[in-house]
């Protein structure tokens, strides 16, 4: 089984590209969704998060996301502490998920694939790319965020250019270039 990573900065359209891969019959593991699931389903992780961030970070078993976000959003050390707790659990889930798949190729989608070392053990990585203006418009449409908030979130991420440089393949998802030919070309190269 070949394992392909899929990453890119906020607003590039990773989820859309994943959806196209799924429609092509390729299983996709969304690490960002699984990280959220782990924080509400994995008892050991939940206890570790309470130990690090306080018992009140959960209210009757419900993660207080806003409270946690306030703690980690502007504090890189606390964010790294949270990631160090969550990423090993997500990695374990991915490995378990892979054993359940029968496809010859699977995809692991993660916004912070390189930052979390989640690219290690993958056969190749695709970075989805789009111009900053397009990305900002997409995020505004998606969740109504202000340009200032979006740029602040972009500034906290690894630069898009660095992700593209580290990736084996780059997909341009600008709404002008066709996606399918780009995906098919990558799949042929992965054979």
Please characterize this protein's 3D structure.
A hairpin with a 2-residue loop joins strand 3 (58-59) and strand 4. Helix 2 packs across helix 3, helix 2 (31-41) crosses helix 5 and helix 3 (43-53) packs antiparallel against helix 5 (76-100). Helix content is 55%, strand content 15%. The model has no long low-confidence stretch (mean pLDDT 93). It has two domains: 1-27 and 105-191, Rossmann fold (3-Layer(aba) Sandwich), CATH 3.40.50; 33-100. It has helices at 14-23, 31-41, 43-53, 65-72, 76-100, 132-143, 147-156, 160-166, 179-190, and strands at residues 2-7, 28-30, 58-59, 62-63, 105-109, 124-129, 169-172. It is of the alpha/beta class.
Helical stretch count?
9
Within the largest sheet, what's the order of strands?
2-5-1-6-7
Termini distance? 11 Å
CATH topology of the largest domain: Rossmann fold
Average of pLDDT: 93
Task: Return the CATH architecture of the largest domain.
Answer: 3-Layer(aba) Sandwich
Shape: globular
- Structural class by sheet pairing and helices: alpha/beta
- Count of β-strands: 7
The CATH superfamily of the largest domain is known as P-loop containing nucleotide triphosphate hydrolases
Beta-strand content bin: 5-15%
Let me know the largest β-sheet.
5 strands, parallel
The proportion of residues forming helix, as a percent range, comes to 55-70%
Poorly predicted runs are: none
Instruction: Give, in order, the helices and strands.
Output: EHEHHEEHHEEHHHEH
